[in-house]
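WARN no homologs supplied; continuing
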Amino acid sequence: MKTSLSFLLLALSILPLGARAVEAPTADEVVTASDAVRNPSEPFERKLTLVEYIDGTAHSQTVLRVYSKVDPATGQYRNLVRYEEPPRDVAKTVLMNGTVMWFYDPAARSSVRISPQQRLLGQAAQGDVVTVNLAHDYRAKLVGPAAGETLNDADQHARSCWHVELVPSNDSAIYGRIDYWVEQGSFHPVKSKFYSDSGRLLKIAYYHKYGESLGAQRPTEIILIDAVNSKLVTTMNTSDDKARAIPDNWYQRDYLPRVGQ
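OK structure emitted
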């Protein structure tokens, strides 16, 4: 009897550990893990093709080459964006280093400071095409049910997600607030809503077409939908991702005329 009782007590002590539900991650853990899904940690370059659609019909296209590298001093990415198409824009360059963004036009041989919110093509702003670690620029808070939320992705497949609210933590933040849904388990970003500083909803994004890139499954397409008129859509497709040693001097304003020469 004593042996049976000892066995029962042992079993009861083990059961809660085996049956215990997996503890939910913190909001910071969700955002950090999703950053790792979206962004390679090593310096890299990628091709980015933007297409603007109006009522389902392609209206215009821009092709960019993006060079991204983490600044060890800040933990945020430095970005250089070169225009490859259309022909009239070839070799135009955008530099984002910290909180400052510069636009260089080789025809004018000058660079001017621009805002990350400035429109690039369709619903895509200049700040949407650069690589950003959200965990660096925003404070995160889990919202909604403790068990998460279920929502449909771009293909209308139901996903169990953590819903995170992001608000700026420094001047580098591009948006006034972001509602962000990240799939449980995989930490794949599924959907975002972007708001202005005044609280106006600007656009909705879906992270789509996951594929292998630089050692991880990453979204190869982002679909941006106008918050007022859903017939206005812009897609951003990534391709040709590759690790690359990028010289530090590329991220200096004075060097912009010589990049790529």
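The chain has one domain: 23-253.
OK
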